[in-house]
Design brief:
globular, D-Maltodextrin-Binding Protein, domain 2, phenylalanine biosynthesis, Bifunctional chorismate mutase/prephenate dehydratase, Chorismate Mutase Domain, subunit A, prephenate dehydratase activity, coiled coil, CM_dom_sf
Length: about 350
């Protein structure tokens, strides 16, 4: 080891750190001035944030893009925080994967508003208790998160999707106990239990699976019960003081959940965009095909479709749709105009940037 050369490089790192710290402070002050110049204009602008991160990634070839994105997402969050700290509602308690979705959307400079259910997330935004809501839309293993769709269908109509983020979901088995052999009950959100179905069958075949409101609620319910375990995030296990008995217990290695950021206002066009809406058709042969035909005629790529029962009308349904494109694009506008004429009702859920 060349101690002289090592000391030289450490001193160089110290100098660079000092320069970086000065630039961070200068960036934060510039953000404060931008906030004053904006007046009452919106502070959360996911399109602008994605553009900034994209330019930074181009300037950092050879570095891990996910790591660079995380670092810069936090820097943007810090600078946004000198203008205002957003309040974000999510399915709690803290430590849930929805909580991690909040961090993915806003970074760490955010005031979390945990809610007991998905309707309560939308209600918190509607009543002004939160600026934004973050709700799971779809999981790569278990598909559509149906309670979110049901809550969205009955939410205030001026609450729309502003952004879409995706996070990697790694489940752990956590308990106050220290041995999986002592576990008699496994608690979690139904989606999480479904994502770990094969692992639980193979490793805890005698344990009863108990669905609860969220993964973090499952972790909290294990306090004082060494015979219980939670399928939850490592963050939830840490916050509840639980031992992690097994890691990455989801049945497929590539497990991701996409989240919607919902709120009031009008989203801006991004580099890539989606438009989401729900509709209902008459209960007659061929009406669904007739309603969807304009998407084909206008060359739109349908990326998601989900049916849900229509309340008060047995065996009738409304349909959630995602298509690629922005509302102001002529193909999207023309398709929706025609679909409104062919449906009983059609409600726009948002036209927004996606990554």
């Amino acid at each position: 080891m060349d101690k002289g050369k090592l000391q030289h490089f450490r001193e160089k790192i110290d100098t660079l750190d000092k320069q970086i710290a000065g630039l961070i402070a200068e960036r934060a002050e510039t953000a404060r001035e931008i906030g004053r110049a904006k007046g009452g204009a919106p502070v959360y602008d996911p399109v602008r944030e994605n553009q900034v991160i994209g330019r930074v990634l181009l300037a950092c070839p050879g570095l891990d893009p996910e790591a660079v994105t995380r670092i810069y997402r936090e820097l943007i969050s810090l600078c946004r925080g000198v203008q205002y700290r957003p309040k974000a509602a999510f399915l709690g308690p803290e430590g849930s994967f929805s909580h991690e979705g909040v961090f993915a959307a806003f970074g760490g400079t955010v005031d979390p508003v945990p809610c007991p259910s998905f309707p309560d997330v939308f209600a918190a935004v509607d009543k002004g208790q939160a600026d934004w809501g973050v709700v799971p839309a779809e999981n790569s293993l278990e598909g559509t998160v149906l309670p979110t769709m049901d809550a969205f269908a009955s939410a205030a109509k001026d609450i729309v999707i502003h952004n879409e983020v995706s996070i990697k979901v790694d489940h752990v088995l956590a308990s106050e106990g220290t041995s999986p052999e002592d576990i008699r009950e496994v608690l979690s959100h139904p989606q999480a239990l479904g994502q770990c179905r094969e692992w639980l069958r193979a490793n805890l075949p005698r344990a009863e699976q108990v669905p609860v409101a969220s993964t973090s609620a499952a972790a909290a319910a294990c306090a004082g019960r060494p015979d219980r375990a939670a399928v939850c995030s490592a963050l939830a296990a840490e916050r509840c003081g639980l031992n992690i008995l097994a890691e990455k217990i989801q049945d497929r290695g590539s497990n991701r959940t996409r989240f919607w950021v919902v709120g009031r206002g009008t989203p801006r066009r991004g580099e890539r965009n989606k438009t989401s809406f729900l509709f209902n058709v008459e209960h007659k042969p061929g009406r669904l095909f007739y309603a969807l035909e304009p998407l084909y005629e206008n060359g739109l790529n349908l990326t998601h479709i989900q049916s849900r029962p229509l309340s008060g009308s047995p065996f009738e349904y409304y349909f959630f749709i995602d298509v690629e494109g922005f509302l102001e694009d002529e193909p999207v506008r023309k398709a929706l105009d025609t679909m409104r004429e062919r449906t009983v009702f059609l409600r726009l859920l948002g036209s927004y940037p996606c990554r």
